[in-house]
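A further point concerns the way the authors explain their paired sequence and structure data. For illustration, here is how one protein appears when written out as sequence plus structure tokens:
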Amino acid sequence: MSKEYYLPHFYAPSKVIKSNKDQGFLPDILSMDENPLLLAVYFDNQNIGKEKSSFLPDEPNNMVRKALELSFGKEFEGSELYEYNMGDTPVIEYKKINPTKYRVRIHEARGLFHLVFSESFRTDWKAYLTPNALMAKNDINIDEALKRYKILNNRISDQATGDDVRSYLNKGWITSLSAGAEKEKIYTKWVNYRQEVDYVEKYSNEALVDFISKNNHGTIQNDNLPDGDVFETLFSFNQLYELTEETHLKANGYSNAWAINPGILCNSKSSGNTSCLANPDGTFDFEIIVEYYPQRLYYITLTISLTVVFIRIAQWLATLEGMLTTLAGWLIPQLRNRKAKTLVPDEEETGYTGV
């Protein structure tokens, strides 16, 4: 299926809807919009305690509510169902580092927008503004990069062409092109209801730029973004700024979303002014890490466990050293005495009486 008909893992909706109905009405609400793929719907009973002013624009558009009232009659009479236009939405560049960590770079963010993350909602999903400086487009040699770019088998429909990549780079929509050791892509197939390896495609040494997707509803998957350190969000020493839980919402009945206002976020003293790149047109570029918090606890536990193991090994080695020193202190005199007896035989053995 073409990517025109489904959303990427991260996206910024152009419109959002707030409703006091329950999520069972989601299909009906989506059916009222010409382009439901660009929507995010928030139900009051799934976002209890969230202040409307913190994640919604000031003026709603009532057309959706009126359309639903006409279609479904009394079911929607008196309901709060409002559509909000989000204006110009930013371009999103992201990489899935592993199932619990994503690197997301936001480009040309002008005003309040929502970053929707299509994974099951958990309060343990956290978003952190990083201090990382984004690479400027002038720092990348586009012609050299395109020489190392390859369209992978079975990805023609969703992978960016060379011309696409050139356009993204010129616009500043992608900010990293990796180069390094030989890589490989593993392709699978279904055999008797089981997924098996079909074949492995290797990158040649002349094609070391990893996968870049087409622009899918304002989102570009760029597998060339850095993985970062495993402990990147663990030992940040206050260099990361965690987006508050007040802005963490449940969207579309199941997924995560964060309401982000770059004007506030990028100028906040607590977040650090160096975290955002201010563009000449008044927009901002910045980087966010989305990570599942229990994974950090796992890393903490692992670090503590390894530290304890190393301490125990060090203690054991110190004890062993002490034992060897004690043994050497006893053994060396014994060997010296035995050597002395060998050099000076006793009288009985020689028959010498000394007379």
